[in-house]
Design goal:
Aspartate Aminotransferase, domain 1, 382 residues, binds pyridoxal-5'-phosphate, alpha/beta, Aspartate Aminotransferase, domain 2, globular
Length: 382
């Protein structure tokens, strides 16, 4: 017992101790914490759909007399957990991504974990961007394949590794996010496709932060490219819950048969699947409207950063402000809280050592004035 206690004490000493924030309430662009209404700049609800009351009421009216008005599937997908609405949503997704088939997983974490650990087998190798999400790393660790991590967005380094190792393995998979979760920079999918073809590998792209935020028609940034497997989550821009993979029929059927994180888990409640499907099919106009607003605020923010000579690696609505020191990052976040802004400090192991940061997460309904105030304050702290 004392081992765990001592480890926690060490985390506290190094300002790395994590606690679940006590959020009393969330609505629109706000969170209520300690009785105070703060502007939420730590949300992945990029289109502000998840707390949109009007939308939720409209959906309840639509769904309440339907067979999907159920709050549990009470079973795994391969038992009695798959009702028709799952199939309908999978058909919508496959069509939207111009792929043969789709498979819904319970979360993006379970999806990446399942896809990678299942497709990468003994005698295979995975090449992964160094800043890929924990779910991708854990998928590689869980698989029987070997893996190599290439320097972030460094495709020369990826090619060096491919040259050196590809020939020693049966199959190879290259994995990258499209929009990176902590840096907001964007992979060169064209280059990745070129390399996967040259070295006979499969290419998997995780679209978690691009899906329905900065892509076209909610088809991901890989749309139009020869990407073999695409994964994404419903839990961010779409304001829902769950995740999916799209690919060819063989890969999807292989996952259905072999992916343990798909097989051995109770399926998402039907009402939630219905909500996701309703948004993607009946509320395209709302999604497009919010996407335009997000694009406008993103452009304005990048322009403002440039005008102040503040460098950022970001090319998107996710904007990291790297402070470096863990303690200082926590202090700056506290100061922002006292100014009325909820911006959580992001520390290792979520990001590499000495790159602790505030991750400004822009959402469609945020006012630019607020972003400006936050940036003006941060300018003096970096
Ligand atoms: N992939 C990336 C890049 C993410 O940032 C996340 C989010 O946490 C996930 C996957 C996991 O998605 P989910 O939250 O649905 O488990």
């Amino acid at each position: 017992m004392s081992f765990y206690y001592n480890e926690l004490e060490k985390l506290k000493e190094t300002h790395s101790y994590r606690q679940i924030p006590d959020i009393e309430e969330k609505n629109d662009k706000f969170v209520i914490v300690d009785g105070r209404k703060l502007i939420n700049l730590s949300s992945n609800d990029y289109l502000n759909l998840s707390t949109n009351e009007e939308l939720a009421k409209e959906f309840i009216n639509y769904v309440e007399d339907s067979p999907q008005f159920q709050f549990s599937s009470a079973s795994a997908r391969l038992l009695s957990g798959t009702t028709r609405v799952y199939r309908e949503l999978e058909t919508v997704l496959a069509k939207q991504f111009h792929k043969d088939a789709a498979l819904i997983f319970n979360t993006g974490y379970q999806c990446n974990l399942g896809v990678i650990s299942t497709l990468a087998r003994k005698g295979d190798i995975v090449f992964s961007d160094k800043l890929n999400h924990a779910s991708i790393i854990d998928g590689m660790k869980l698989s029987d394949a070997d893996f190599k991590r290439y320097k972030h967005l460094d495709y020369d380094n990826l090619e060096e590794l491919l040259k050196k190792y590809r020939g020693q393995y049966k199959n190879a998979i290259i994995v990258s996010e499209s929009v990176f979760s902590m840096d907001g920079d964007i992979a060169d999918i064209r280059k990745l496709v070129e390399l996967k073809k040259k070295y006979d590998a499969l290419l998997m792209i995780d679209e978690a932060h691009a899906f329905c935020s900065i892509d076209d028609n909610c088809a991901g940034m890989s749309d139009g490219f020869d990407v073999d497997i695409i994964t994404a989550t419903f839990g961010k821009a779409l304001g829902s819950f769950g995740a999916f993979a799209v690919s060819n029929k063989t890969i999807i059927n292989y996952l259905i048969n072999k992916a343990r994180s798909f097989i051995f888990s109770t399926a998402i409640p039907p009402i939630n699947i219905a909500w996701t499907k309703w948004l993607l099919t009946e509320k395209k106009d709302v999604i497009e409207h919010q996407k335009h607003k997000l694009a406008r605020i993103t452009i304005a923010t990048h322009k403002y950063l440039k005008s102040l000579d503040i460098d950022t690696v970001s090319d998107s609505h996710i904007i990291p402000v790297v402070i470096g020191d863990d303690g200082k990052t926590v202090e700056v976040a506290e100061q922002l809280k006292s100014m009325g802004y909820f911006v959580l400090p992001i520390r290792p192991p979520t990001v590499p050592k000495n790159t602790s940061r505030l991750r400004l997460s822009l959402t469609a309904d945020i006012d630019f004035d607020d972003i400006r105030k936050v940036i003006d304050y941060l300018k003096n702290e970096i």
